[in-house]
Write a structure and sequence with these properties.
The complex is a heterodimer of chains A (357) and B (382). By secondary structure, chain A is α/β, with parallel strands linked by helices. Chain A has helices at 11-22, 50-63, 73-89, 96-115, 157-160, 172-181, 203-210; strands at residues 2-6, 26-33, 67-71, 120-122, 127-132, 135-140, 163-164, 217-220, 226-230, 253-258, 263-267, 274-284, 293-296, 304-312, 315-324, 332-337, 340-347. Chain A has 7 helices and 17 strands. In chain A, β8 and β9 form a beta hairpin. Chain B is 40% helix and 14% strand. Chain B has 12 helices and 12 strands. In chain B, α6 (162-172) links the parallel β5 (144-148) and β6. Classes of the chains: A alpha/beta (357), B alpha/beta (382). At the A-B interface, β2, α2 and β3 of A face α10 of B.
């Protein structure tokens, strides 16, 4: 097969390219350039730095495969960065990496593969594609510690037909071992965690430079007692402790953000408890399923048993069997049945307001 | 050679070294490798080779030998002329005029001048890629110190009316230093600097089959510029650093070959370029940039209908043909071209352009062969 491999310059995608090549496939490596500074400079941290694309190029040279850098900065800026800023301005907690997968990476990548007569695309994500009858299912990776199916929840069975996740059955230590045995220089490279366009800087600073959100306001409790002042709601997300005046006895958390009145509500941990919330823009890998479900409300969080009910097209109510803390509007709720990913959607801002009151 | 099967149509980016240049380079490195500034027999041998080479290069371009200074390439020559004319701390009200379609070496040097608070004018281009002469002349005044206009653009091959512009500029202010980046042009044009009426020029060896890392700054004897690199007293005390004699020898060999062959070479290249364009025009939906204005013989900038050139470039590479878009950034990602932007090419087609550039290695039949490969790739992508 001719396979287009997304190479970030990290060890995972390097190994994917190496494995597929050693299986006899015709592999083409591609780095997607998503973000650049005002003078065209590549980001310094995150998943696609200048040094990373240099690493990807070196790996491609070592593997003797063609390698290209494709420019998707316009699409990324429009779909991910604008959304990131918009979400903070609305008092929500964005997840730019999911947004990027959802609206930039896979669409462009699969389209590019089609144009270049590739049979499949492959990435270094830890997730598993299982074929059952006519359907392609998305499952958690065997190596649960690294499972990344959460950030891939928007992929449908149709898209999965074109995708390979060769690391779904391999552990991270094995990946490093394979990289070392292939002589790849990325074998012992650290994993990246930063948001590529924010880097090591504080995201608050980044948002602050992009829009005028620095409207001061009050920090209040649910009875409107004033605890202090803040410099802009974009500095807060639901569940956060940082930036709240101390000396309140019990630790306080942000429980709600009132954008219109620039007010940040705080409360005790128990005030953050949620049992029911809404998911918007819900998509399913295959048909929806309703039995033995659980949900993750953040990347790499626990599976919480739940039930779902369709309220409107694309909008579902989620009821947790046990209440949980810190369900943040703007993040994604991803629904599983065992290891099988059923679907997911964005946690609605109506979450802690109407339903729980 | 492994690359023999690969179809190279990116001569505007760089060319392979001519055999004669390679031979001269090799000879210099073995027989005349000594430091040309030294005092012994071998140094003299190197110095003699250097000065013989300088004469060959000077003669070809209609210049005097002492008007030719060897540099590391075209970029250094452009930087030297423009930046040395304006000191880093602003001391007077000198002005610089250049154009929005220049090579990055000139554009970035002009930006440097502007950052030092001098007035810099970037003259616009019309939709045909020819700069607006009247707009340029309107900017010329008694403070204008340097005017820099490229002879021909490296992305489109479109030639500027340098002789006319230089003449008219000098009429307004005869003290102006008129610089021209001729890096791309000299591949297929024979240029006499003094007849052209320019005072300085930048040349790069590797665009004409000479080694990389060697270039020329031509500066008319009427002008003097401060040194750009400081150190030893080489090159008539103009440029410090041990002279790259082997590069110079390679350059002189390439220039000698041009002296003998340029008209035949140009004819062959132009024939292949034209048959390439004619065939594309006949069989697929393309627009040839600069077709109706004076243009270099070796460059073909093609706009493809509904085809993203990033994808087409990859498809061609996978088939074994190397071409390019505008200028590549460090990461290898290709950005929309500033030249095409300056020509007001609309946003929705600006990413549909590829540059095919022929060169001294171009053989009979290459034009049609290239057209066939491009047509089949375009068909597959449509």
């Amino acid at each position: 097969m001719r396979i287009l491999v997304a190479m970030s310059g990290g060890v995972d995608s390097s190994v994917v390219a190496g494995l597929l090549k050693s299986q006899g496939h015709e592999v083409i490596g591609v780095t997607m350039k998503l973000w650049e500074g005002p003078n065209g400079e590549m980001p310094e941290t995150g998943c696609c730095t200048a040094a990373d694309s240099e690493d990807a190029r070196k790996v491609a040279a070592k593997l003797d495969i063609p390698y290209y850098v494709l420019d998707y900065t316009a699409s990324f800026s429009e779909n991910v960065i604008d959304n990131f800023i918009d979400m903070y301005a609305k008092g929500l907690t964005p997840n730019p990496c999911v947004e990027c997968n959802r609206s930039v990476k896979f669409d462009h990548f699969i389209e590019q593969a089609k144009k270049l007569n590739c049979d499949k695309v492959a990435t270094g994500h830890y997730a598993k594609i299982v074929t059952k009858d006519e359907n392609y299912e998305l499952h958690k990776a065997d190596y649960l510690e690294k499972d990344q199916s959460y950030v891939l929840h928007m992929l449908t069975s149709k898209a999965l037909q074109k995708i390979m996740f060769p690391l779904g059955t391999i552990s991270k230590p094995e990946v490093r071992q394979i990289a070392a045995s292939l002589g790849l220089k990325t074998a012992f490279k650290k994993d990246s965690q930063d948001i590529c366009f924010v880097g090591k800087k504080d995201y608050r600073q980044f948002v602050g430079t992009r829009i005028n959100v620095n409207i001061k306001g009050n920090i209040v409790d649910k009875n409107e007692n004033i605890y202090g002042q803040h410099n802009g709601i974009h500095e807060f997300t639901v569940g956060q402790r940082r930036g709240i005046p101390g000396g309140q006895g019990e630790p306080k958390y942000v429980t709600k953000i009132d954008v219109n009145n620039s007010k940040v509500y705080i409360g005790n941990k128990k005030d953050l408890t949620t049992k029911k919330f809404l998911l918007d823009d819900v998509s399913f890998v295959n048909q929806p399923e309703y039995s033995n479900l659980s949900i993750q409300t953040r990347y790499n969080s626990f599976d919480i048993p739940c039930e779902i009910k369709e309220l409107d097209t694309g909008t579902f109510e989620v009821e947790l069997i046990e209440p949980t803390f810190g369900v943040a509007p703007g993040q994604f709720g991803v629904i599983y049945q065992g290891t099988k990913l059923i679907g997911g959607g964005r946690i609605s801002s109506k979450v802690l307001e109407e339903i729980n009151e | 050679m492994v690359n023999e099967e690969y179809f190279y149509l990116d001569h505007a980016a760089t060319t392979p070294m001519r055999d004669s240049a390679f031979e001269a380079y090799r000879f210099a490195e073995t027989e005349a490798f000594a430091n040309s500034s030294g005092g012994h027999t071998l140094s003299r041998k190197a110095k003699n080779l250097l000065e013989d080479s300088r004469e060959i290069v000077a003669k070809y371009f209609g210049a005097a030998p002492n008007e030719i200074t060897f540099t590391s390439g075209g970029t250094e020559a452009d930087n030297w002329v423009i930046k040395s004319s304006f000191q880093s701390k602003i001391t007077d009200n000198s002005e610089l005029i250049t154009t929005s379609i220049e090579h990055e070496a000139v554009l970035a040097s002009a930006e440097w001048v502007r950052e030092n608070d001098y007035i810099v004018h970037f003259v616009s281009s019309d939709i045909n890629g020819v700069i607006n002469t009247q707009e340029l002349l309107n900017k010329v005044n008694e403070n204008t110190k340097v005017v820099s206009v490229m002879y021909a653009n490296n992305e489109t091959g479109i030639v500027q009316p340098i002789k006319t512009i230089a003449e008219q500029v000098k009429k307004i202010n005869p003290n102006i230093l008129f610089h021209s980046d001729v890096v791309q042009a000299v591949a297929t044009e024979k240029i006499d600097f003094h007849k052209l009426g320019i005072d300085s020029a930048a040349i790069s060896g590797h665009k004409i089959g000479a080694p990389k890392g060697i270039g020329v700054m031509f500066l008319s004897s009427k002008f003097k510029l401060p040194s750009f690199l400081h150190g030893g007293k080489q090159e008539l005390e103009r440029r410090a650093g041990t002279v790259n004699v082997s590069g110079v020898a390679g350059l002189a060999a390439a220039v000698s070959e041009l002296e003998k062959n340029i008209s035949n070479e140009k004819k062959r290249i132009e024939y292949e370029r034209n048959s390439f364009e004619d065939k594309l025009n006949l069989e697929i939906d393309v627009k040839i940039i600069g077709k109706d204005v004076p243009r270099l013989s070796h460059i073909s900038n093609i706009q493809f209908k509904n085809i993203n050139s990033e994808t087409l470039m990859i498809a061609l590479d996978l088939k074994g043909m190397g071409v390019s878009r505008g200028s590549a950034c460090a990461s290898g990602a290709q950005k929309p071209s500033h030249v095409l932007k300056a020509m007001n090419i609309s946003e929705d087609v600006i990413n549909n352009h590829l540059r095919f550039s022929f060169g001294w290695t171009t053989k009979d039949g290459d034009g049609l062969k290239a057209a066939d490969m491009v047509i089949s790739s375009v068909m597959e992508l449509s």
